[in-house]
Design goal:
By secondary structure, the protein is an alpha/beta fold. The chain has 14 helices and 19 strands. It has helices at about 20-30, 45, 50-55, 75-80, 90-100, 105-115, 125-130, 130-145, 170-180, 215-225, 255-265, 310-315, 330-340, 385-400; strands spanning about 10-15, 35-40, 85-90, 120, 145-150, 150-155, 160-165, 190-195, 200, 205-210, 230-235, 245-250, 270-275, 280, 300-305, 320-325, 345-350, 365-370, 375-380. An eight-stranded mixed beta sheet has the order 12-11-8-13-16-17-18-19, sandwiched between helices. A five-stranded parallel beta sheet has the order 2-1-3-4-5, sandwiched between helices. A hairpin with a 4-residue loop joins strand 18 and strand 19. It starts with 7 loop residues before the first strand and ends with a helix. The chain binds cytidine-5'-monophosphate (C5P).
Length: about 400
């Protein structure tokens, strides 16, 4: 892979003992043909002398915001020339400053002035990493599109075992390659993504629904848009804010979702049905409110909703169709059945019994099964990361 060949990588190095690992990162980046511009914070210079990085990068290391007699390298020129900004190791301090929009040194100023993607590899003591303020700062940065890799659990500089060790240089460089490669790879394509639950009304005040939060579908919409696709997001009721750059439609019931999806289908290159569409709806729909005076109770009769995805499968032609499959047992068997019956290109299977998978949570554990029967397990990761994996897989399917 030579995705980073001739790319300008701005490597920010901050004050952590893991700073020595940045030497290996520079070596790996240069081996792949990238140009590395090292930028160090003052604190980082206490751990490793700039000369080390200067020698490895064959380039002057920038440390000061205001360098005398040096007009060429300023924070603005660095910010403009960077194809990607990688901060590794990133201390709690730099993460806090970036999340607060502070720009008081060359690295923070450059990060604030760039349009290039920013990747952060944190490294710190486990107590610092678990601190709620730090976690809030990470969340804020993620919300504006900053990517994080690691940290990992392992032996820390203090001798303790805990969460906070910087990811391995090889992993960081691989992640960076994937980030650069995936930028704009869906340019010119339009995808429809459905998300969230549906509400099937019983009367004016009650409805049947599921625990779906919409998180997986919204992450897919956001990631697709970030990779250049035009995204139409059709969502059932969700508390989430729709990503800014998508065409958004809010629906309530499965019938409404069905109608909207069918209306938009002709104009898209593919559909990802991440919505937890209710399979049934009540036959009765009381105009007012069901009274509690029905002493004997009452039987609730349900009828089947249209299977939106199955209908799309019948008219799909060369469009890409991705379905979700949430099960509590026989996951792979059920998923393969769905793939066939609904005529899908890809099914994303969720085992609802696993910790950190399925409805409501921020993470997911999924198995991707394509129409050729290829099975790929993605271990537990954030829904954003799962979304990346799903789009990567769609890309491969489209290339075929
Ligand atoms: O058959 P099952 O409901 O398990 O299939 C799940 C997949 O089908 C999901 O992708 C879901 O969005 C979609 N679906 C649908 N219409 C329904 C029920 C599910 O499109 N009525």
């Amino acid at each position: 892979m030579d995705t980073i060949k001739d790319k300008n990588v701005l490597l920010g190095i901050t004050g952590s003992i893991a700073a020595y690992k940045a030497a290996e990162i520079i070596r790996l980046l240069r081996e792949r043909g990238a140009r590395v511009y090292p930028v160090m914070t003052q604190a980082a210079t206490h751990f490793v002398h700039p000369l080390t990085f200067q020698t490895l990068a064959s380039r002057k290391v920038t440390v000061k915001l205001f360098e005398e007699n040096d007009e060429k390298i300023s924070h603005i020129s660095l910010a403009q020339l960077a194809d990607v900004v990688l901060i590794a190791p990133a201390s709690a301090n730099i993460i806090g400053k970036l999340s607060g929009g502070i720009a008081d040194d060359i690295l923070t100023t450059t990060a604030l002035a760039t349009r290039a993607p920013i990747l952060i590899a944190p490294a710190m003591n486990n107590v610092m990493y678990e601190n709620l303020l730090l976690q809030e700062n990470i969340k804020r940065l993620k919300a504006i599109g900053v990517s994080f890799i690691g940290p990992e659990k392992g032996k820390l500089a203090s001798g303790e075992i805990g969460m906070g060790r910087m990811s391995a240089p090889s992993q960081i460089v691989e992640y960076l390659e994937r980030t650069i490669q995936s930028k704009d790879d869906f340019q010119g394509k339009t995808f429809l993504v459905t998300a969230g639950p549906t509400r099937e009304p019983l009367d004016k005040v009650r409805f049947i629904t599921s625990f779906s939060s919409g998180k997986m579908g919204y992450a897919l919409a956001e990631e697709g848009a970030a990779r250049g696709a035009s995204i139409i997001l059709i969502s059932g009721p969700s508390l989430l804010e729709p990503p800014r750059e998508v065409e958004f439609y809010s629906v309530e019931s499965a019938l409404e979702m069905h109608e909207k999806v069918m209306e938009k289908f002709a104009q898209v290159d593919g559909v990802i049905m991440a919505a937890a569409v209710s399979d049934y709806r009540p036959t009765m729909k009381e105009a007012g409110k069901i009274k509690k005076s029905l002493k004997e109770g009452f039987a609730l009769k349900l009828v089947q909703n249209p299977d939106i995805l199955k209908e799309l499968g019948r008219k799909k032609r060369n469009k890409i169709l991705v379905g979700f499959c949430a099960e509590v047992k026989n996951l792979e068997r059920e998923a393969k059945k769905k793939l066939e019956v609904k005529n899908l290109d890809l099914v994303v299977a969720n085992d609802l019994t696993l910790e950190g998978a399925g409805f409501g949570v921020d993470t997911n554990v999924v198995t991707l099964i394509d129409k050729e029967g290829k099975v790929e397990h993605l271990s537990k990761r954030s829904k954003k990361e799962v979304a990346k994996g799903i789009w990567d897989k769609i890309k491969k399917l489209m290339e075929r």
